[in-house]
UniProtKB/TrEMBL annotation:
Belongs to the aldo/keto reductase family. The active site is at residue 78. Substrate binds at residue 140. The lineage of its organism: Eukaryota, Metazoa, Chordata, Craniata, Vertebrata. The gene is LOC100070501. InterPro entries: AKR (IPR020471), AKR1C (IPR044482), Aldo/ket_reductase_CS (IPR018170), NAD(P)_OxRdtase_dom_sf (IPR036812), NADP_OxRdtase_dom (IPR023210). GO terms for molecular function: aldose reductase (NADPH) activity; ketosteroid monooxygenase activity; steroid dehydrogenase activity. The record marks 107 as: Lowers pKa of active site Tyr. It comes from the Eukaryota. One of its GO terms (biological process) is steroid metabolic process. Pfam families: Aldo_ket_red. It comes from Equus caballus. This is NADP-dependent oxidoreductase domain-containing protein.
Length: 346
Protein backbone atom coordinates (compact mmCIF):
# COMPACT_ATOMS: atom_id res chain seq x y z
CA UNK A 1 0.00 0.00 0.00
CA UNK A 2 1.11 3.52 -0.72
CA UNK A 3 0.60 6.47 1.60
CA UNK A 4 -0.52 9.48 -0.41
CA UNK A 5 0.73 12.94 0.41
CA UNK A 6 -2.51 14.84 -0.01
CA UNK A 7 -4.83 12.89 2.25
CA UNK A 8 -8.09 13.97 0.69
CA UNK A 9 -10.59 11.23 0.07
CA UNK A 10 -11.99 12.62 -3.16
CA UNK A 11 -9.26 14.71 -4.78
CA UNK A 12 -6.65 13.98 -7.41
CA UNK A 13 -3.43 12.40 -6.25
CA UNK A 14 -0.42 10.84 -7.91
CA UNK A 15 -0.03 7.10 -8.35
CA UNK A 16 -1.02 4.48 -10.88
CA UNK A 17 -4.74 3.79 -11.60
CA UNK A 18 -6.37 1.11 -9.50
CA UNK A 19 -3.78 1.31 -6.71
CA UNK A 20 -5.13 0.73 -3.21
CA UNK A 21 -3.92 3.73 -1.23
CA UNK A 22 -3.80 4.85 2.39
CA UNK A 23 -4.48 8.56 2.72
CA UNK A 24 -2.25 10.27 5.24
CA UNK A 25 -4.98 12.39 6.81
CA UNK A 26 -7.42 9.76 8.02
CA UNK A 27 -5.87 6.40 7.08
CA UNK A 28 -8.94 5.70 4.95
CA UNK A 29 -7.91 3.16 2.33
CA UNK A 30 -8.78 4.40 -1.14
CA UNK A 31 -8.74 3.30 -4.75
CA UNK A 32 -7.82 5.60 -7.62
CA UNK A 33 -10.67 6.10 -10.08
CA UNK A 34 -10.17 6.39 -13.83
CA UNK A 35 -10.73 10.19 -13.64
CA UNK A 36 -7.96 10.67 -11.06
CA UNK A 37 -10.13 11.08 -7.97
CA UNK A 38 -9.93 8.70 -5.01
CA UNK A 39 -12.71 6.62 -3.45
CA UNK A 40 -12.34 5.03 0.02
CA UNK A 41 -12.66 1.24 -0.33
CA UNK A 42 -15.07 0.98 2.61
CA UNK A 43 -18.27 3.00 2.51
CA UNK A 44 -21.18 3.62 4.88
CA UNK A 45 -24.60 2.82 3.38
CA UNK A 46 -27.61 4.89 4.45
CA UNK A 47 -30.59 3.02 2.97
CA UNK A 48 -33.25 2.03 5.50
CA UNK A 49 -36.68 0.43 5.47
CA UNK A 50 -39.63 2.82 5.30
CA UNK A 51 -40.63 2.22 8.92
CA UNK A 52 -37.20 3.35 10.22
CA UNK A 53 -37.44 7.00 11.41
CA UNK A 54 -35.48 9.38 9.16
CA UNK A 55 -33.67 10.72 12.24
CA UNK A 56 -31.87 7.35 12.48
CA UNK A 57 -29.95 8.17 9.29
CA UNK A 58 -28.81 11.46 10.87
CA UNK A 59 -27.65 9.75 14.07
CA UNK A 60 -25.98 6.79 12.32
CA UNK A 61 -24.12 8.95 9.79
CA UNK A 62 -22.60 10.99 12.63
CA UNK A 63 -21.54 7.78 14.41
CA UNK A 64 -20.06 6.45 11.15
CA UNK A 65 -17.96 9.60 10.66
CA UNK A 66 -16.79 9.50 14.29
CA UNK A 67 -15.78 5.85 13.85
CA UNK A 68 -13.73 6.68 10.74
CA UNK A 69 -15.97 6.22 7.69
CA UNK A 70 -15.24 8.87 5.05
CA UNK A 71 -17.21 7.35 2.16
CA UNK A 72 -20.97 7.92 2.57
CA UNK A 73 -23.36 6.30 0.10
CA UNK A 74 -26.90 7.57 -0.29
CA UNK A 75 -29.53 8.18 -2.97
CA UNK A 76 -32.47 10.42 -3.77
CA UNK A 77 -34.86 7.46 -3.51
CA UNK A 78 -33.78 6.77 0.10
CA UNK A 79 -35.63 9.97 1.03
CA UNK A 80 -33.20 10.80 3.84
CA UNK A 81 -30.65 13.10 2.18
CA UNK A 82 -31.74 16.03 4.36
CA UNK A 83 -30.88 14.01 7.47
CA UNK A 84 -27.61 12.65 6.05
CA UNK A 85 -26.62 16.14 4.85
CA UNK A 86 -27.37 17.57 8.30
CA UNK A 87 -25.07 14.95 9.86
CA UNK A 88 -22.28 15.79 7.39
CA UNK A 89 -22.60 19.53 8.02
CA UNK A 90 -22.60 19.04 11.80
CA UNK A 91 -19.44 16.91 11.64
CA UNK A 92 -17.80 19.60 9.50
CA UNK A 93 -18.92 22.35 11.86
CA UNK A 94 -17.49 20.59 14.94
CA UNK A 95 -14.13 20.10 13.20
CA UNK A 96 -14.27 16.30 12.91
CA UNK A 97 -13.92 16.48 9.10
CA UNK A 98 -13.52 18.98 6.29
CA UNK A 99 -15.69 18.75 3.18
CA UNK A 100 -12.77 17.40 1.15
CA UNK A 101 -12.31 14.52 3.61
CA UNK A 102 -15.76 13.15 2.74
CA UNK A 103 -16.56 11.12 -0.38
CA UNK A 104 -20.32 11.42 -0.86
CA UNK A 105 -22.33 9.44 -3.43
CA UNK A 106 -25.87 10.12 -4.56
CA UNK A 107 -27.88 8.40 -7.29
CA UNK A 108 -30.14 9.47 -10.14
CA UNK A 109 -33.51 7.81 -9.63
CA UNK A 110 -35.34 5.98 -12.42
CA UNK A 111 -38.00 8.69 -12.87
CA UNK A 112 -35.30 11.24 -13.82
CA UNK A 113 -33.46 9.38 -16.61
CA UNK A 114 -34.67 11.69 -19.38
CA UNK A 115 -31.67 13.94 -20.09
CA UNK A 116 -33.45 17.22 -19.33
CA UNK A 117 -34.33 15.93 -15.84
CA UNK A 118 -30.80 14.88 -14.82
CA UNK A 119 -29.30 18.17 -13.65
CA UNK A 120 -32.46 19.34 -11.83
CA UNK A 121 -32.50 15.96 -9.99
CA UNK A 122 -28.90 16.43 -8.85
CA UNK A 123 -29.56 20.03 -7.86
CA UNK A 124 -32.50 18.83 -5.78
CA UNK A 125 -30.26 16.35 -3.94
CA UNK A 126 -27.63 19.07 -3.36
CA UNK A 127 -30.28 21.38 -1.91
CA UNK A 128 -31.48 18.64 0.46
CA UNK A 129 -27.88 17.90 1.47
CA UNK A 130 -26.85 21.53 1.87
CA UNK A 131 -23.72 20.83 -0.22
CA UNK A 132 -22.23 22.56 -3.26
CA UNK A 133 -21.18 19.32 -4.95
CA UNK A 134 -21.20 15.55 -4.52
CA UNK A 135 -18.16 13.36 -5.11
CA UNK A 136 -20.02 10.77 -7.15
CA UNK A 137 -23.30 10.86 -9.07
CA UNK A 138 -24.48 7.55 -10.53
CA UNK A 139 -27.43 6.26 -12.54
CA UNK A 140 -29.28 4.13 -9.94
CA UNK A 141 -30.84 1.63 -12.36
CA UNK A 142 -30.76 1.38 -16.16
CA UNK A 143 -34.57 0.99 -16.22
CA UNK A 144 -36.41 4.30 -16.73
CA UNK A 145 -39.80 4.96 -15.12
CA UNK A 146 -42.49 7.49 -15.94
CA UNK A 147 -41.26 10.98 -14.93
CA UNK A 148 -42.99 12.71 -12.03
CA UNK A 149 -42.94 13.01 -8.26
CA UNK A 150 -43.97 9.40 -7.53
CA UNK A 151 -40.94 7.24 -6.75
CA UNK A 152 -42.81 4.18 -8.06
CA UNK A 153 -45.40 5.52 -10.54
CA UNK A 154 -48.21 2.98 -10.92
CA UNK A 155 -51.20 2.59 -13.19
CA UNK A 156 -54.78 1.86 -12.08
CA UNK A 157 -54.02 -1.86 -11.80
CA UNK A 158 -50.97 -1.27 -9.57
CA UNK A 159 -48.33 -1.94 -12.25
CA UNK A 160 -45.21 0.22 -12.23
CA UNK A 161 -45.23 2.53 -15.28
CA UNK A 162 -41.94 2.27 -17.15
CA UNK A 163 -40.49 4.68 -19.72
CA UNK A 164 -38.17 4.55 -22.75
CA UNK A 165 -34.93 6.54 -22.64
CA UNK A 166 -31.62 6.15 -24.47
CA UNK A 167 -29.13 5.74 -21.61
CA UNK A 168 -26.41 7.31 -23.76
CA UNK A 169 -28.39 10.57 -23.67
CA UNK A 170 -28.74 10.22 -19.90
CA UNK A 171 -24.97 9.69 -19.68
CA UNK A 172 -24.28 12.88 -21.66
CA UNK A 173 -26.39 14.78 -19.14
CA UNK A 174 -24.26 13.32 -16.31
CA UNK A 175 -21.12 14.42 -18.15
CA UNK A 176 -22.51 17.96 -18.20
CA UNK A 177 -23.10 17.80 -14.43
CA UNK A 178 -19.43 16.88 -13.99
CA UNK A 179 -18.34 19.73 -16.25
CA UNK A 180 -20.51 22.11 -14.22
CA UNK A 181 -18.70 21.08 -11.00
CA UNK A 182 -21.87 19.69 -9.41
CA UNK A 183 -20.21 16.27 -9.11
CA UNK A 184 -16.55 15.26 -9.13
CA UNK A 185 -17.09 11.83 -10.69
CA UNK A 186 -19.88 10.00 -12.53
CA UNK A 187 -20.76 6.33 -12.71
CA UNK A 188 -23.53 3.76 -12.93
CA UNK A 189 -25.27 1.15 -10.80
CA UNK A 190 -26.94 -2.17 -11.63
CA UNK A 191 -25.59 -2.16 -15.21
CA UNK A 192 -24.66 -5.41 -16.94
CA UNK A 193 -21.53 -5.66 -19.10
CA UNK A 194 -23.43 -4.97 -22.34
CA UNK A 195 -24.93 -1.78 -20.90
CA UNK A 196 -21.47 -0.70 -19.74
CA UNK A 197 -20.10 -1.39 -23.22
CA UNK A 198 -22.90 0.69 -24.75
CA UNK A 199 -21.72 3.69 -22.69
CA UNK A 200 -18.01 2.99 -23.29
CA UNK A 201 -18.59 2.73 -27.06
CA UNK A 202 -20.77 5.83 -27.26
CA UNK A 203 -19.60 8.22 -30.03
CA UNK A 204 -18.19 11.38 -28.44
CA UNK A 205 -17.80 9.82 -24.99
CA UNK A 206 -16.19 12.42 -22.73
CA UNK A 207 -15.92 10.52 -19.42
CA UNK A 208 -15.97 6.78 -18.71
CA UNK A 209 -18.07 5.58 -15.77
CA UNK A 210 -15.71 5.42 -12.76
CA UNK A 211 -17.72 2.65 -11.13
CA UNK A 212 -20.57 0.17 -11.39
CA UNK A 213 -22.35 -0.30 -8.06
CA UNK A 214 -24.05 -3.69 -7.94
CA UNK A 215 -25.40 -6.26 -5.52
CA UNK A 216 -22.38 -8.37 -4.56
CA UNK A 217 -21.83 -10.85 -1.72
CA UNK A 218 -20.64 -14.46 -1.30
CA UNK A 219 -23.95 -15.81 -2.70
CA UNK A 220 -23.58 -13.51 -5.76
CA UNK A 221 -19.88 -12.84 -6.12
CA UNK A 222 -20.10 -11.20 -9.57
CA UNK A 223 -16.72 -12.67 -10.58
CA UNK A 224 -17.32 -12.25 -14.34
CA UNK A 225 -18.62 -8.70 -14.01
CA UNK A 226 -15.71 -7.87 -11.67
CA UNK A 227 -13.22 -9.19 -14.24
CA UNK A 228 -14.91 -7.18 -16.99
CA UNK A 229 -14.94 -3.97 -14.93
CA UNK A 230 -11.28 -4.37 -13.96
CA UNK A 231 -10.37 -4.78 -17.65
CA UNK A 232 -12.05 -1.41 -18.37
CA UNK A 233 -10.62 0.39 -15.30
CA UNK A 234 -14.08 0.64 -13.75
CA UNK A 235 -14.36 0.04 -10.01
CA UNK A 236 -16.95 -2.48 -8.83
CA UNK A 237 -18.80 -1.25 -5.73
CA UNK A 238 -20.69 -3.86 -3.70
CA UNK A 239 -24.07 -3.22 -2.07
CA UNK A 240 -25.96 -5.80 0.01
CA UNK A 241 -22.48 -7.09 0.91
CA UNK A 242 -23.86 -8.40 4.23
CA UNK A 243 -26.94 -9.94 2.63
CA UNK A 244 -30.00 -7.74 2.53
CA UNK A 245 -32.67 -6.08 4.61
CA UNK A 246 -36.07 -7.72 4.24
CA UNK A 247 -37.76 -4.88 2.35
CA UNK A 248 -40.97 -6.44 0.97
CA UNK A 249 -40.88 -4.01 -1.99
CA UNK A 250 -37.61 -5.47 -3.24
CA UNK A 251 -36.68 -8.70 -1.45
CA UNK A 252 -38.52 -12.02 -1.12
CA UNK A 253 -39.05 -12.88 2.54
CA UNK A 254 -37.73 -16.45 2.26
CA UNK A 255 -34.31 -15.24 1.02
CA UNK A 256 -31.32 -16.87 2.78
CA UNK A 257 -29.49 -15.14 5.63
CA UNK A 258 -25.91 -14.73 4.42
CA UNK A 259 -24.46 -13.99 7.86
CA UNK A 260 -25.90 -17.27 9.17
CA UNK A 261 -23.96 -19.28 6.58
CA UNK A 262 -21.95 -22.02 8.37
CA UNK A 263 -18.81 -21.47 6.26
CA UNK A 264 -18.83 -17.70 6.82
CA UNK A 265 -19.41 -18.29 10.53
CA UNK A 266 -16.59 -20.85 10.75
CA UNK A 267 -14.12 -18.48 9.06
CA UNK A 268 -15.25 -15.68 11.38
CA UNK A 269 -14.69 -17.89 14.42
CA UNK A 270 -11.22 -18.84 13.19
CA UNK A 271 -10.20 -15.16 12.99
CA UNK A 272 -12.15 -14.11 16.13
CA UNK A 273 -14.24 -11.83 13.94
CA UNK A 274 -17.92 -11.38 13.14
CA UNK A 275 -19.45 -12.92 9.99
CA UNK A 276 -20.09 -9.35 8.79
CA UNK A 277 -16.42 -8.44 9.09
CA UNK A 278 -15.50 -11.54 7.07
CA UNK A 279 -18.03 -10.67 4.32
CA UNK A 280 -16.65 -7.11 4.07
CA UNK A 281 -13.00 -8.14 4.21
CA UNK A 282 -13.65 -10.69 1.42
CA UNK A 283 -14.67 -7.87 -0.93
CA UNK A 284 -11.75 -5.58 -0.11
CA UNK A 285 -9.24 -8.38 -0.71
CA UNK A 286 -10.65 -9.07 -4.18
CA UNK A 287 -10.42 -5.41 -5.21
CA UNK A 288 -14.06 -4.47 -4.67
CA UNK A 289 -15.14 -1.26 -2.93
CA UNK A 290 -17.66 -2.37 -0.32
CA UNK A 291 -20.60 -0.63 1.38
CA UNK A 292 -21.59 -1.55 4.94
CA UNK A 293 -25.05 -0.54 6.11
CA UNK A 294 -26.07 -0.54 9.77
CA UNK A 295 -27.79 1.95 12.04
CA UNK A 296 -26.59 0.05 15.14
CA UNK A 297 -23.65 1.81 16.83
CA UNK A 298 -21.87 -1.39 17.86
CA UNK A 299 -22.12 -2.82 14.33
CA UNK A 300 -21.06 0.43 12.68
CA UNK A 301 -17.86 0.30 14.76
CA UNK A 302 -17.44 -3.41 14.02
CA UNK A 303 -17.93 -2.91 10.28
CA UNK A 304 -15.08 -0.40 10.17
CA UNK A 305 -12.62 -2.82 11.82
CA UNK A 306 -11.70 -4.82 8.72
CA UNK A 307 -8.21 -3.51 7.99
CA UNK A 308 -6.31 -5.23 10.82
CA UNK A 309 -6.77 -8.85 9.74
CA UNK A 310 -6.45 -10.82 6.52
CA UNK A 311 -8.30 -13.79 5.07
CA UNK A 312 -6.07 -16.62 3.88
CA UNK A 313 -6.14 -17.87 0.26
CA UNK A 314 -8.01 -20.94 1.62
CA UNK A 315 -10.60 -18.66 3.27
CA UNK A 316 -11.06 -16.72 0.03
CA UNK A 317 -11.46 -19.94 -1.97
CA UNK A 318 -14.03 -21.29 0.52
CA UNK A 319 -16.05 -18.05 0.30
CA UNK A 320 -15.79 -18.06 -3.51
CA UNK A 321 -17.29 -21.55 -3.35
CA UNK A 322 -20.48 -20.17 -1.75
CA UNK A 323 -21.48 -18.43 -4.98
CA UNK A 324 -24.93 -19.52 -6.17
CA UNK A 325 -25.82 -16.48 -8.32
CA UNK A 326 -28.53 -15.60 -5.81
CA UNK A 327 -29.97 -12.09 -6.04
CA UNK A 328 -31.82 -10.36 -3.21
CA UNK A 329 -32.87 -7.38 -5.38
CA UNK A 330 -34.38 -8.73 -8.60
CA UNK A 331 -36.49 -5.72 -9.75
CA UNK A 332 -39.01 -8.18 -11.15
CA UNK A 333 -41.56 -5.53 -12.10
CA UNK A 334 -39.12 -4.40 -14.82
CA UNK A 335 -38.28 -7.91 -16.08
CA UNK A 336 -39.96 -7.32 -19.46
CA UNK A 337 -38.29 -3.95 -20.11
CA UNK A 338 -35.56 -4.03 -22.79
CA UNK A 339 -33.16 -2.37 -20.29
CA UNK A 340 -33.73 -5.02 -17.60
CA UNK A 341 -30.13 -5.70 -16.55
CA UNK A 342 -30.39 -9.24 -15.20
CA UNK A 343 -31.33 -11.03 -18.42
CA UNK A 344 -27.59 -11.22 -19.15
CA UNK A 345 -25.31 -13.64 -17.32
CA UNK A 346 -23.28 -10.69 -16.00
Amino acid sequence: MKASSQGKAGKKESGSPGLWTVTALNHSRSVKLNDGHFMPVLGFGTYALEEVPKSKAWEATKVAIDVGFRHIDSAYVYQNEEEVGKALREKMADGTVKREDIFYTTKLWNTFLRPELVRPALERSLKKLGLDYVDLFIIHWPVPMKPGEDLLPKDASGQVILDTVDLRDTWEALEKCKDAGLTMSIGVSNFNHKQLEMILNKPGLKYKPVCNQVECHPYLNQSKLLEFCKSKDIVLVAYSALGSQRDPNWVEKDSPYLLEDPIVKAIAKKHSRSPGQVALRYQVQRGVVVLAKSFNEKRIKENFQIFDFELTPEDMKAIDGLNRNFRYAKLLFAADHPNYPFSEEY
